Amino acid sequence: MFMFSLTNATAFALALIGTTVYGQTQPNSYTRALCVKAKDGRVAELAKYLHDVTAKTAKVRVDAGVYSSFIVAQSVVPAGRAAPCDFRLLYRSNGFPSEATGPEKLAEDMKKAGIAMTREQSVTQRDAISYLVSTDYWQNRVDVGGPAAKGSYVRVNYYRTKPGSTPANWVQMENGGWRGMAEVWAKETPGMGWGILTIALSAGTEVPYNGITYDLFPTWAALGRSGQNRATWNKVHPQQDLSDYMAQLANIAERRRTEVLKVIEAVGAPNR
User: Fold this and answer.
1) How far apart are alpha carbons 25 and 217 in whole angstroms?
2) pLDDT digits (tens, 9 = 90+) for 56-106
3) Can you give the CATH number for the domain in which 18 is found?
Protein backbone atom coordinates (compact mmCIF):
# COMPACT_ATOMS: atom_id res chain seq x y z
CA MET A 1 0.00 0.00 0.00
CA PHE A 2 0.99 3.62 0.05
CA MET A 3 3.45 3.45 2.91
CA PHE A 4 2.71 6.97 4.09
CA SER A 5 -0.82 5.81 4.72
CA LEU A 6 -0.19 2.49 6.38
CA THR A 7 2.83 3.32 8.44
CA ASN A 8 1.56 6.73 9.48
CA ALA A 9 -1.94 7.67 10.59
CA THR A 10 -4.50 8.35 7.86
CA ALA A 11 -7.69 10.51 7.29
CA PHE A 12 -10.31 13.16 5.91
CA ALA A 13 -13.99 12.83 5.51
CA LEU A 14 -14.48 9.27 4.73
CA ALA A 15 -18.12 9.76 5.05
CA LEU A 16 -17.95 9.06 1.37
CA ILE A 17 -18.62 5.33 1.16
CA GLY A 18 -21.25 3.32 2.90
CA THR A 19 -24.82 2.22 3.14
CA THR A 20 -27.48 4.82 2.60
CA VAL A 21 -28.38 6.52 5.86
CA TYR A 22 -30.21 9.82 6.06
CA GLY A 23 -28.92 12.45 8.44
CA GLN A 24 -27.20 10.21 10.96
CA THR A 25 -24.61 11.74 13.27
CA GLN A 26 -21.19 10.12 13.64
CA PRO A 27 -19.84 11.03 17.11
CA ASN A 28 -17.24 8.24 17.21
CA SER A 29 -16.16 8.03 13.58
CA TYR A 30 -12.86 9.50 12.41
CA THR A 31 -11.02 9.89 9.13
CA ARG A 32 -7.34 10.34 8.41
CA ALA A 33 -6.64 12.14 5.16
CA LEU A 34 -3.34 12.03 3.33
CA CYS A 35 -2.58 14.65 0.71
CA VAL A 36 -0.20 13.11 -1.82
CA LYS A 37 1.52 14.75 -4.76
CA ALA A 38 3.06 12.96 -7.75
CA LYS A 39 6.47 13.99 -8.93
CA ASP A 40 6.54 15.72 -12.32
CA GLY A 41 5.15 13.48 -15.03
CA ARG A 42 4.44 10.57 -12.68
CA VAL A 43 0.68 10.94 -12.04
CA ALA A 44 -0.28 7.86 -14.08
CA GLU A 45 2.43 5.78 -12.38
CA LEU A 46 1.24 6.88 -8.97
CA ALA A 47 -2.38 6.04 -9.81
CA LYS A 48 -1.24 2.53 -10.80
CA TYR A 49 0.77 2.17 -7.59
CA LEU A 50 -2.23 3.23 -5.51
CA HIS A 51 -4.33 0.59 -7.27
CA ASP A 52 -1.77 -2.23 -7.23
CA VAL A 53 -0.26 -1.71 -3.78
CA THR A 54 -2.10 0.80 -1.60
CA ALA A 55 -5.70 -0.25 -2.22
CA LYS A 56 -4.91 -3.96 -1.98
CA THR A 57 -3.11 -3.52 1.33
CA ALA A 58 -5.88 -1.28 2.63
CA LYS A 59 -8.42 -4.01 1.86
CA VAL A 60 -6.51 -6.36 4.17
CA ARG A 61 -6.77 -3.72 6.90
CA VAL A 62 -10.47 -3.12 6.24
CA ASP A 63 -11.19 -6.87 6.32
CA ALA A 64 -9.35 -7.06 9.66
CA GLY A 65 -11.41 -4.20 11.12
CA VAL A 66 -8.51 -1.76 11.43
CA TYR A 67 -10.35 0.66 9.12
CA SER A 68 -14.03 0.70 8.23
CA SER A 69 -13.38 2.02 4.72
CA PHE A 70 -10.76 3.40 2.37
CA ILE A 71 -10.90 5.76 -0.61
CA VAL A 72 -8.45 7.14 -3.12
CA ALA A 73 -9.78 10.33 -4.69
CA GLN A 74 -7.98 12.10 -7.55
CA SER A 75 -8.07 15.88 -7.87
CA VAL A 76 -10.14 17.15 -10.81
CA VAL A 77 -10.42 20.85 -9.91
CA PRO A 78 -7.85 22.21 -9.37
CA ALA A 79 -5.48 19.95 -11.27
CA GLY A 80 -1.83 19.99 -12.22
CA ARG A 81 0.70 22.06 -10.33
CA ALA A 82 -2.06 24.29 -8.94
CA ALA A 83 -3.57 21.36 -7.04
CA PRO A 84 -2.39 21.04 -3.40
CA CYS A 85 -2.83 17.27 -3.78
CA ASP A 86 -2.97 15.04 -6.83
CA PHE A 87 -4.58 12.32 -4.69
CA ARG A 88 -6.27 12.18 -1.30
CA LEU A 89 -6.07 8.90 0.59
CA LEU A 90 -8.92 8.61 3.06
CA TYR A 91 -9.01 6.05 5.85
CA ARG A 92 -12.08 5.92 8.05
CA SER A 93 -12.29 4.19 11.42
CA ASN A 94 -15.04 3.53 13.93
CA GLY A 95 -13.53 5.17 16.97
CA PHE A 96 -10.30 7.11 17.29
CA PRO A 97 -7.71 5.82 14.80
CA SER A 98 -5.30 3.22 16.09
CA GLU A 99 -1.61 3.98 16.53
CA ALA A 100 0.61 3.50 13.49
CA THR A 101 1.92 -0.01 12.98
CA GLY A 102 5.52 -0.94 12.26
CA PRO A 103 7.22 -2.17 9.09
CA GLU A 104 6.89 -5.84 10.04
CA LYS A 105 3.10 -5.63 10.17
CA LEU A 106 3.02 -3.74 6.90
CA ALA A 107 5.13 -6.43 5.23
CA GLU A 108 2.76 -9.07 6.63
CA ASP A 109 -0.30 -7.26 5.26
CA MET A 110 1.31 -6.82 1.85
CA LYS A 111 1.95 -10.56 1.74
CA LYS A 112 -1.69 -11.26 2.65
CA ALA A 113 -2.73 -8.90 -0.16
CA GLY A 114 -0.75 -10.96 -2.67
CA ILE A 115 1.72 -8.18 -3.48
CA ALA A 116 4.91 -9.68 -4.90
CA MET A 117 7.33 -6.88 -4.03
CA THR A 118 8.88 -6.46 -0.60
CA ARG A 119 8.06 -3.58 1.73
CA GLU A 120 11.46 -2.04 0.98
CA GLN A 121 10.87 -2.26 -2.76
CA SER A 122 7.45 -0.65 -2.42
CA VAL A 123 8.91 2.22 -0.38
CA THR A 124 11.59 2.79 -3.01
CA GLN A 125 9.00 2.80 -5.80
CA ARG A 126 6.66 5.10 -3.87
CA ASP A 127 9.39 7.63 -3.07
CA ALA A 128 10.54 7.70 -6.69
CA ILE A 129 7.15 8.83 -7.97
CA SER A 130 5.49 10.75 -5.11
CA TYR A 131 5.74 12.59 -1.82
CA LEU A 132 3.45 13.19 1.14
CA VAL A 133 2.25 16.79 1.47
CA SER A 134 0.21 16.58 4.69
CA THR A 135 -1.91 14.44 6.99
CA ASP A 136 -5.12 15.68 8.65
CA TYR A 137 -7.37 14.01 11.22
CA TRP A 138 -11.10 14.66 11.00
CA GLN A 139 -14.11 13.70 13.07
CA ASN A 140 -17.15 12.74 11.02
CA ARG A 141 -20.18 14.64 12.34
CA VAL A 142 -23.04 13.97 9.89
CA ASP A 143 -23.44 11.63 6.91
CA VAL A 144 -26.36 11.66 4.48
CA GLY A 145 -26.81 9.34 1.51
CA GLY A 146 -24.21 7.55 -0.52
CA PRO A 147 -22.60 5.21 -1.14
CA ALA A 148 -19.62 6.59 -3.00
CA ALA A 149 -18.43 4.14 -5.61
CA LYS A 150 -15.56 4.12 -8.01
CA GLY A 151 -16.33 6.85 -10.52
CA SER A 152 -18.25 9.08 -8.09
CA TYR A 153 -17.38 12.77 -7.77
CA VAL A 154 -16.97 14.66 -4.52
CA ARG A 155 -17.09 18.43 -4.06
CA VAL A 156 -15.27 19.38 -0.85
CA ASN A 157 -15.74 22.76 0.84
CA TYR A 158 -13.17 23.88 3.44
CA TYR A 159 -14.36 26.30 6.14
CA ARG A 160 -12.82 28.37 8.89
CA THR A 161 -15.07 29.62 11.69
CA LYS A 162 -14.95 33.35 12.35
CA PRO A 163 -13.93 35.00 15.64
CA GLY A 164 -16.72 34.64 18.18
CA SER A 165 -18.03 31.45 16.53
CA THR A 166 -17.13 27.84 17.21
CA PRO A 167 -17.13 24.67 15.11
CA ALA A 168 -20.14 23.55 17.14
CA ASN A 169 -22.07 26.67 16.06
CA TRP A 170 -21.13 26.02 12.46
CA VAL A 171 -22.08 22.32 12.54
CA GLN A 172 -25.46 23.21 14.03
CA MET A 173 -26.13 25.81 11.33
CA GLU A 174 -25.00 23.58 8.44
CA ASN A 175 -26.92 20.60 9.76
CA GLY A 176 -30.08 22.60 10.36
CA GLY A 177 -30.08 24.08 6.87
CA TRP A 178 -28.59 21.61 4.42
CA ARG A 179 -29.29 18.19 5.88
CA GLY A 180 -32.99 18.19 5.02
CA MET A 181 -32.21 19.18 1.45
CA ALA A 182 -29.50 16.53 1.19
CA GLU A 183 -31.96 13.89 2.37
CA VAL A 184 -34.33 14.87 -0.45
CA TRP A 185 -31.57 14.73 -3.06
CA ALA A 186 -30.25 11.40 -1.78
CA LYS A 187 -33.72 9.84 -2.03
CA GLU A 188 -34.32 11.28 -5.49
CA THR A 189 -30.91 10.33 -6.91
CA PRO A 190 -29.21 7.19 -5.52
CA GLY A 191 -25.53 7.80 -4.95
CA MET A 192 -25.88 11.43 -3.93
CA GLY A 193 -24.73 12.36 -0.45
CA TRP A 194 -23.62 15.11 1.90
CA GLY A 195 -21.77 15.37 5.17
CA ILE A 196 -19.93 17.45 7.76
CA LEU A 197 -16.51 16.93 9.35
CA THR A 198 -14.53 18.95 11.87
CA ILE A 199 -10.78 19.00 12.42
CA ALA A 200 -9.79 16.60 15.19
CA LEU A 201 -6.19 17.25 16.22
CA SER A 202 -4.90 20.47 14.65
CA ALA A 203 -5.76 23.76 16.37
CA GLY A 204 -4.69 27.39 16.64
CA THR A 205 -4.76 30.50 14.51
CA GLU A 206 -2.33 29.08 11.93
CA VAL A 207 -4.70 26.27 10.89
CA PRO A 208 -6.29 27.45 7.62
CA TYR A 209 -9.55 25.51 8.06
CA ASN A 210 -11.37 23.61 10.80
CA GLY A 211 -14.44 22.24 9.04
CA ILE A 212 -15.46 20.47 5.86
CA THR A 213 -18.70 19.82 4.06
CA TYR A 214 -18.78 17.43 1.14
CA ASP A 215 -21.30 16.86 -1.64
CA LEU A 216 -21.28 13.44 -3.28
CA PHE A 217 -22.45 12.91 -6.87
CA PRO A 218 -22.77 9.54 -8.62
CA THR A 219 -21.77 10.99 -12.02
CA TRP A 220 -20.16 14.02 -13.63
CA ALA A 221 -23.55 14.94 -15.10
CA ALA A 222 -25.10 14.95 -11.62
CA LEU A 223 -22.36 17.31 -10.46
CA GLY A 224 -23.16 19.61 -13.37
CA ARG A 225 -26.83 19.75 -12.37
CA SER A 226 -26.03 20.87 -8.82
CA GLY A 227 -26.61 24.41 -7.63
CA GLN A 228 -30.37 24.53 -8.20
CA ASN A 229 -31.12 24.85 -4.51
CA ARG A 230 -33.96 27.29 -4.03
CA ALA A 231 -36.87 25.03 -5.04
CA THR A 232 -35.73 22.27 -2.70
CA TRP A 233 -35.05 24.79 0.07
CA ASN A 234 -38.55 26.23 -0.20
CA LYS A 235 -40.01 22.74 0.09
CA VAL A 236 -37.89 21.75 3.10
CA HIS A 237 -37.80 25.16 4.85
CA PRO A 238 -40.98 27.01 3.86
CA GLN A 239 -40.69 29.40 6.83
CA GLN A 240 -37.15 30.63 6.11
CA ASP A 241 -35.70 32.41 3.09
CA LEU A 242 -32.57 30.81 1.59
CA SER A 243 -30.77 34.16 1.23
CA ASP A 244 -31.35 34.95 4.91
CA TYR A 245 -29.97 31.56 5.91
CA MET A 246 -26.88 31.99 3.74
CA ALA A 247 -26.22 35.39 5.30
CA GLN A 248 -26.41 33.86 8.80
CA LEU A 249 -24.06 31.08 7.75
CA ALA A 250 -21.58 33.59 6.34
CA ASN A 251 -21.48 35.34 9.71
CA ILE A 252 -20.35 32.11 11.38
CA ALA A 253 -17.74 30.77 8.95
CA GLU A 254 -16.03 31.59 5.69
CA ARG A 255 -15.43 29.11 2.90
CA ARG A 256 -11.68 29.06 2.27
CA ARG A 257 -11.65 26.92 -0.84
CA THR A 258 -13.52 24.26 -2.82
CA GLU A 259 -12.12 21.31 -4.71
CA VAL A 260 -13.62 18.53 -6.83
CA LEU A 261 -12.30 14.97 -6.62
CA LYS A 262 -13.04 11.74 -8.47
CA VAL A 263 -13.14 8.48 -6.53
CA ILE A 264 -10.78 6.02 -8.24
CA GLU A 265 -10.58 3.38 -5.47
CA ALA A 266 -13.21 2.49 -2.86
CA VAL A 267 -12.86 -0.32 -0.32
CA GLY A 268 -15.30 -1.26 2.44
CA ALA A 269 -18.20 0.61 3.96
CA PRO A 270 -18.30 2.49 7.28
CA ASN A 271 -20.66 1.27 9.97
CA ARG A 272 -23.09 4.15 10.10
Assistant:
1) 20
2) 999 999 999 999 999 999 999 999 998 999 999 999 999 998 887 789 999
3) 3.30.70.100
